């Protein structure tokens, strides 16, 4: 609640969820997550999903866990009431979802794609399709997937070969899709696949349209991946053989329309990262308080939580947790207020650094637990395996960085970048150290704004996004003045930004290197 109250605009969008109601919502989410969802996570990792006879079976308890989410209304908090949702602000989802992701990121993969598809169909589908599917998705009676990648087309969407043809009576989709989370399962009888397919011969992505294809005749799950983590989340290969399909939105606008779903899922990855990081931080804190080692030889050993290096590990992750939570709420409230461009500017960073925080927190937990953390007797090793993929799906870090730099920060003469700098300067005017970080970042962006060579911008994108994240955290830390997180962050912010600046300024060398 403190982070919500600290987010400008929260009370302007809150409406029904006043502070008391919001606290009750958060408490109920935490109760359900800890009591029903979390107990499924470890056993689900050990047993995993199974693919037999063309169908996928999930670990025991998964169906009951998903039903509990659906019956509580947690799949549709921000959907309009007319379509089966609760009609709450997106900020409520951003505040609540980390509790469920903390409990079981694997099971929440089904919830994430279903929620995102419901928003997609609510915005772009024809009324008949919308009214048929969105309430059913909101109620958890059906689930949905996003189908983009193919064997020869991962991030290179211009090479998509799956075809959609109109046979005079309707559309039919033929092709193969891979990396489809919950592409088949036994949670619900009906699954809708949001499929990006080529409906015209126009080159590149202009010929791509979006279709809803239901599991049934013409759709086959040909296998599931054997993965490092998220074992309870089946990652499927799907074959479509003239499968009946419904066109979603406008033909040829598939990729643009799909970004409604992609943006939602990138925000979800941010909540996923926050949830897993919180779990790992609490795990490490509990162990550090109980595990006793060291101290004077003539006295009882001390809890390792009193060792300076352990305190450093815990404090740095706690700092990043607090600042990521503020960023998530800032993005969600911006969207609730209709400031979608501000949300879009933050999303590549939220997705990237939420993913990295989850992995780093899991790595920290393994470190604090020592040898025990490296064993399957403790959940830290599962968190480490599960979290690695967060930086890969829904757009890799490199893709997020290029989106952040080229499409969000430099497009339209840098309007979104200037909007951030203006707000940050105003909010940080009374703190010289925060303001210095903002000005360092503004100065760093001067050269990229004048750069016209696209390869050089791409080479600089990653360190520039990391520099931006440092500036964003400096700005957000003003909302928690005097806190341990803010003080710790500000102590190292300018040197950290200088390191990213050096990396960005030398990035052109990677283009010019020969034989590497």
Automatic annotation (TrEMBL):
<dbReference type="InterPro" id="IPR036250">
    <property type="entry name" value="AcylCo_DH-like_C"/>
</dbReference>
<keyword id="KW-0274">FAD</keyword>
<dbReference type="InterPro" id="IPR009075">
    <property type="entry name" value="AcylCo_DH/oxidase_C"/>
</dbReference>
<keyword id="KW-0285">Flavoprotein</keyword>
<dbReference type="InterPro" id="IPR006091">
    <property type="entry name" value="Acyl-CoA_Oxase/DH_mid-dom"/>
</dbReference>
<dbReference type="InterPro" id="IPR037069">
    <property type="entry name" value="AcylCoA_DH/ox_N_sf"/>
</dbReference>
<keyword id="KW-0560">Oxidoreductase</keyword>
<dbReference type="Pfam" id="PF02770">
    <property type="entry name" value="Acyl-CoA_dh_M"/>
</dbReference>
<dbReference type="GO" id="GO:0016627">
    <property type="term" value="F:oxidoreductase activity, acting on the CH-CH group of donors"/>
</dbReference>
<dbReference type="Pfam" id="PF00441">
    <property type="entry name" value="Acyl-CoA_dh_1"/>
</dbReference>
<feature type="domain" description="Acyl-CoA oxidase/dehydrogenase middle">
    <location>
        <begin position="146"/>
        <end position="242"/>
    </location>
</feature>
<dbReference type="InterPro" id="IPR013786">
    <property type="entry name" value="AcylCoA_DH/ox_N"/>
</dbReference>
<protein>
    <submittedName>
        <fullName>Acyl-CoA dehydrogenase</fullName>
    </submittedName>
</protein>
<dbReference type="GO" id="GO:0050660">
    <property type="term" value="F:flavin adenine dinucleotide binding"/>
</dbReference>
<dbReference type="Pfam" id="PF02771">
    <property type="entry name" value="Acyl-CoA_dh_N"/>
</dbReference>
<dbReference type="InterPro" id="IPR046373">
    <property type="entry name" value="Acyl-CoA_Oxase/DH_mid-dom_sf"/>
</dbReference>
<feature type="domain" description="Acyl-CoA dehydrogenase/oxidase C-terminal">
    <location>
        <begin position="252"/>
        <end position="402"/>
    </location>
</feature>
<comment type="similarity">
    <text>Belongs to the acyl-CoA dehydrogenase family.</text>
</comment>
<dbReference type="InterPro" id="IPR052166">
    <property type="entry name" value="Diverse_Acyl-CoA_DH"/>
</dbReference>
<feature type="domain" description="Acyl-CoA dehydrogenase/oxidase N-terminal">
    <location>
        <begin position="63"/>
        <end position="140"/>
    </location>
</feature>
<dbReference type="InterPro" id="IPR009100">
    <property type="entry name" value="AcylCoA_DH/oxidase_NM_dom_sf"/>
</dbReference>
